[in-house]
Specification:
It is built from 13 helices and ten strands. With 411 residues, it is of the alpha/beta class. The strands form two sheets. Strands 1-2-4-3-5-6-7-8 form an eight-stranded mixed beta sheet, sandwiched between helices. A two-stranded antiparallel sheet has the order 9-10.
Length: 411
């Protein structure tokens, strides 16, 4: 039973089997002085028989009145749990007995939700949140108030000692009055913070199981029932198992078969919740990886394309250039000009003056000498001006110019 300790109590492993032996998950037990050590071992054996290891946090009595002691114990507990989850992630179920939520458990919630004084690293917080798959409350939670201090002032074993009941009652009331005088100013604010934190645990998205009895004089059934109903209104999956004849923390002793069946069914549900959550996280991470790969491919394609365009543009014999903003402006101006022309009102075409056909009778007389009919032997080539004009060499028959001048003079 290796573990650790702090100023607020002790942390140890009740049972710690290897994965090869069919361990299904980890049960984190929150115990307080109101539960006997023998009772605690019975619960450890119960969960071990169902295939679950047990990490036990046993808080001191004063943790319920000193939040810093509860925080210290919660931090030690989470570090021990985190070291185990880093080796093998698995479903985790919190099990709270009696007043342990006030002595340690609510501080655990504050740490993993990032609202407590002590903080784990972000990866550690997320790992624990991903693994928490259920919460079990046995004779819990207890509404801490001044009227209950007398009942929790003495250890359970002391309250059951033989002797005059008036003497025991007197001692309890004396201790209670001292506690009320010391902690009255800040106790109500602590109580409000305690309940608010328990309600906020619904954000862990894990089911709840409440094991209670109408015969419980410490963990009132109406308080537990109202708490479960409020969680359900917030969207939580809750189940309340109620008995009639079992006293505080003795439901397993009075109803072992029903108790074991309820716990076993709930642990199966917690395992299913954990499996679905891990599957969703895997799908989300896979989608994120695919999107990242697609973005990388697009970035590589863009880089390669830019490099190719630069190589083309820098080539000495190429005339490919990327469009500039000036060309885009010229193109816009030409498009605007065409739009303006289309918007002008329609008008009749202007008559074109008559033209002279070069091959007609008048054309034969005027242009016969000017229209060559045989261009064989001409040297026709394009000019280097780039305007698409042609010119011909002067290797024409010398008599052509003479005929031209003679005919023009004759006319």
């Amino acid at each position: 039973m290796m573990g650790g300790g702090s100023g607020g109590g002790s942390v140890y492993w009740g049972s710690r089997k290897e994965e090869s032996k069919g361990v299904k998950g980890i049960v984190v037990m929150f115990a307080w002085v109101s539960i006997h050590e023998k009772q605690l071992h019975n619960y450890v054996d119960l969960y071990a028989s169902l295939g679950w290891n047990s990490l036990v946090s046993r808080a001191d009595f004063l943790n319920a009145y000193y939040p810093e002691r509860a925080m210290s114990l919660a931090f030690v507990l989470l570090n021990e749990l985190l070291e185990e989850l880093k080796i093998r992630a698995c479903p985790v179920v919190f099990v709270a007995f009696s007043g342990s939520p006030k002595a340690c458990m609510y501080k655990v919630f504050q740490i993993i939700q990032g609202t407590g004084e002590a903080q784990l690293n972000l990866d550690g917080n997320q790992l624990v949140r991903n693994c928490v798959s259920g919460q079990i409350y046995d004779s819990s939670p207890v509404d801490f108030g001044s009227d209950l201090n007398a009942q929790f002032a003495l250890h359970a074993s002391i309250r059951k000692m033989p002797g005059p009941s008036k003497l025991v009652s007197w001692i309890a009331k004396g201790i209670t009055s001292g506690l009320d005088g010391l902690y009255l100013t800040g106790f109500e604010s602590q109580r409000a913070e305690y309940w608010q934190t328990l309600y906020s645990s619904v954000d862990l998205d894990a089911p709840y199981l409440f094991l209670c009895s109408e015969n419980d004089d410490l963990a009132s059934y109406p308080v537990i029932c109202n708490f479960a109903q409020s969680l359900q209104d917030l969207g939580a999956d809750t189940k309340v198992v109620k008995w009639n004849g079992s006293p505080h923390l003795e439901h397993y002793k009075y109803y072992p078969i029903q108790y074991r069946a309820a716990v076993a069914t709930f642990l199966e549900k917690a395992t299913t919740v954990y499996s679905h959550r891990i599957q969703k996280l895997g799908d989300r991470n896979g989608m994120h990886d695919e999107i990242s790969e697609l973005i990388c491919d697009l970035q590589k394609a863009a880089v390669n394309s830019n490099q190719s365009l630069r190589r083309v543009a820098l080539g000495p014999s190429d005339h490919f250039f990327l469009p500039s903003s000036a060309q885009y402006q010229n193109r816009r101006e030409s498009v605007s000009l065409q739009d303006e022309q289309r918007e002008r009102p329609f008008s009749l075409p202007v008559p074109v003056p008559p033209s002279i056909n070069a091959h007609g009778v008048l054309g034969q007389i005027l242009f016969d000498a000017c229209v060559p009919k045989n261009i064989e032997g001409w040297d026709i080539r394009f000019s280097g001006s780039g305007k698409g004009q042609m010119f011909s060499s002067a290797r024409r028959p010398s008599s052509f110019l003479g005929i031209k001048s003679n005919r023009r003079s004759r006319l």
